[in-house]
From TrEMBL:
This is Pentatricopeptide repeat-containing At3g49142. Keywords: Repeat. PANTHER family: PENTATRICOPEPTIDE REPEAT-CONTAINING PROTEIN. Residues 544-636 form the DYW domain. InterPro entries: DYW_dom (IPR032867), E2_motif (IPR046849), E_motif (IPR046848), PPR_At4g14850-like_plant (IPR046960), PPR_rpt (IPR002885), TPR-like_helical_dom_sf (IPR011990). Pfam families: DYW_deaminase, E_motif, Eplus_motif, PPR, PPR_1, PPR_2. PPR repeats lie at residues 193-223, 224-258, 329-363. Belongs to the PPR family. PCMP-H subfamily. GO terms for biological process: RNA modification. NCBIfam families: PPR (TIGR00756).
DNA sequence: TTAGGGTTAG
């Protein structure tokens, strides 16, 4: 054995028989050694034992081969594992199990199923160690029909009472979208354990059937940490972030033996990210640190995502830097690139991408979505186009709809509307609402009515309920004094019963979110808020601000328009923030729509007059206002 | 051996 490693006492005992050259060479000597080396990442030692064995002329039996396959597979050498299997003349069920587990572990799903088929053709029975791995591969490949056959075979093999097989079958049905079959099986299972319940719960959550998941959760006889975590992540994934946070608290307050682990922490963080709850996120970070759950790279990545979405790019990059270079996987790099993009730091997104390539990682589609949107937000046209071209030629990532969307946005923002339109017609897939929406927005800011009409017509079909599209086109018609068209659109809007998507903004103060709708008068402090906002125009007018009423719908008087603008939800939230925080506090506002142009101008002035840093997250990106300027450079 | 997880344009 390798002298440099310090063999454990147990290994020393196992190695003893090998030190005697007179002793017979037996599989029973080597088997426990390979078993010991399994799962410990000791490939070199394993290879040495394999060589030692070969030198003494021992050919592995099926039993020994099974142990060797397990050792090689667990040490990262799947090709040697496969070689051992194929070199063994008559594989036993144990050896089949070993290779099936190995292939399934490496996501070689086709091979896993092939091995099961071969086992079947040799009339060898599968057992409770065979089926769970075969079913996992069936699930990965979405082979429901085949899965049903496997279900039948497992019954024939007498495994209808086995909890592992039963739970794996439920999981297979759930992940292949057959929830009815999953629940039917669950109902007739003679024995269930907490995993069987958890599998079904996560299945309902995955399908968005939150009520049934909740009912199961409440009725299950015993809950473990996976049950709680499944519910928390299920709530988050279904947009019920308050429920997720509430359940996390409930779990902590319950005086049970259930202790959150790193997966739990990772599952609750997106809830903070979603609702921009920075204080809450920081508290969870502190909790994770206290319980030593923060060192896992995936937790650091989830923290990065949370900080980036809550407006703190500095904290996000701090977390990124804490992940050791070797531990930075694709998701971590992607998260950092997207964080820079959404905050308008296109150049940093580009340099992070280059660092990632130098670190030897292969980018995927998500990497390019982040990179290209970063170029778009920062106006890096040539750089963005260059990366778009390199996607398939250098990195073998086929551009998908979202990548075209980024590039069309990139061209549109810089006023290259015809080029953008031509690219749409050359796309290998049909352009969806995001692409036409981006082109419409670009046509509006570059005042190109012809292309706006083209884009809007597509949008009226693709998303007839989105009132924003009607408003943009109607305003453009009004600016061009095309009143007949304005009336026509208004009639269309009415006849289709389209409701305006209400704008809302919220601000977090001392961990509590305060939500405002446009024109909201329901807040207890609304009188003070409106007073401040009414005084505001005079104050900021003195500094040079002119209200831009083109962002209000053109069917009301000029004064009314100014008033509508004054009461936009983001302005209400900012006014509330100014009234309720100390002068040095950064105001962090989140808006459910895109920030309007007039608010953008007004907030720049507010940041100067009040000497406040204001960070606004809209649906697309972040705007950092400071000293009369915005980080987007008015380029959005 | 089965169950829970982080990144994505507009």
């Amino acid at each position: 054995m390798n002298q440099r490693s310090s063999p454990s006492p147990k290994l020393n005992t196992l190695l003893q028989p090998l030190l005697n050259p007179q002793a017979p060479v037996l599989a029973s000597t080597y088997a426990p050694i390979f078993q010991f080396l399994t799962g410990k990442n000791l490939l070199k030692q394993g290879q040495q034992m394999h060589a030692h064995m070969a030198l003494r002329g021992l050919r592995p039996t099926a039993f020994l081969a099974a142990k060797m396959v397990a050792m090689y597979a667990s040490s990262g050498d799947i090709s040697s594992a496969s070689y051992i299997f194929h070199a063994t003349a008559s594989p036993s069920p144990l050896l089949f199990n070993s290779i099936i587990r190995a292939f399934s572990l490496y996501k070689l799903s086709e091979k896993t199923i092939h091995m099961y088929a071969r086992m079947h053709s040799l009339s060898l029975r599968g057992d409770n160690f065979t089926y769970p791995f075969v079913l996992k591969s069936v699930t990965d490949l979405y082979y429901v029909q085949f899965g049903k056959c496997i279900h039948g075979s497992s019954l024939k093999d007498g495994l209808e009472f086995d909890i592992y097989v039963g739970t794996s079958l439920i999981d297979m049905y759930v992940k292949c979208g057959e929830l009815g079959d999953a629940h039917k099986l669950f109902d007739v299972m003679p024995l269930r354990d907490v995993s069987s319940w958890n599998t079904l719960i996560s299945g309902y959550m995955r399908d968005g059937v939150v009520d049934l998941a909740k009912e199961l959760f409440e009725n299950m006889p015993k809950k473990n940490i996976v049950s709680w975590t499944s519910m928390i992540s299920g709530y988050t994934q279904n947009g019920l972030v308050d429920e997720a946070l509430r359940l996390f608290d409930e779990m902590l307050s319950e005086d049970s033996e259930v202790k959150p682990n790193w997966v739990t922490v990772m599952s609750v963080l997106p809830a903070c990210a979603h609702s921009a709850a920075l204080d809450r996120g920081r508290k969870i970070h502190a909790f994770a640190r206290e319980k030593s759950l923060d060192s896992h790279p995936s937790v650091q990545t989830a923290l990065m995502g949370m900080y980036a979405k809550c407006g703190s790019l500095a904290d996000a990059s701090w977390c990124f830097n804490r992940i050791k270079l070797n531990d930075r996987n694709l998701v971590a790099w992607n998260t950092m690139i997207s964080a820079y993009s959404s905050h308008g730091h296109g150049l940093e997104a580009v340099s992070t991408f280059e660092d990632m390539i130098r670190a030897g990682l292969r980018p995927d589609g998500i990497t390019f979505t982040g990179l290209l949107s970063g170029c778009s937000h920062s106006g890096l046209v040539d750089v963005g186009l260059k990366y778009f071209d390199s996607m398939s030629t250098m990195y073998f990532v086929e551009p998908k709809h979202e990548h075209y969307a980024c590039v069309i946005d990139l061209l549109g923002r810089t006023g290259q509307l015809v080029k953008a339109y031509n690219l749409i017609s050359r796309m290998p897939m049909l352009a969806g609402a995001s692409i036409w929406g981006s082109l419409l927005a670009a046509s509006r800011s570059h005042r190109n009515l012809e292309i706006a009409e083209l884009a809007a017509k597509k949008l009226f079909v693709l998303e007839p309920d989105n009132s924003g599209n009607y408003v943009v086109l109607s305003n453009m018609y009004a600016e061009a004094n095309m009143w007949e068209e304005v009336n026509h659109l208004r009639a269309l809007l009415k006849s289709q019963g389209v409701k305006k998507n209400p704008g809302c903004s919220w601000i977090e103060i001392n961990g509590k979110a305060h939500l405002f709708l446009g024109g909201d008068t329901s807040h207890p402090q609304y009188k003070e808020i409106y007073k401040l906002l009414e005084e505001l125009p005079e104050k900021i007018k003195a500094a040079g601000y002119v209200p831009d009423t083109s962002f209000a719908l053109h069917d009301i008087s000029e004064e009314e328009k100014v008033y509508t603008l004054t009461t936009h939800s983001e302005k209400l939230a900012i006014a509330f923030g100014l009234l309720n925080t100390s002068p040095a506090t950064v105001l962090r506002i989140t808006k459910n729509l895109r920030i309007c142009g007039d608010c953008h101008t007004a907030i720049k002035f507010i940041s100067k007059i009040y000497g406040r840093e204001i960070i606004v997250r809209d649906v697309n990106r972040f705007h950092h206002f400071k000293d009369g300027l915005c980080s987007c450079g008015d380029y959005w």
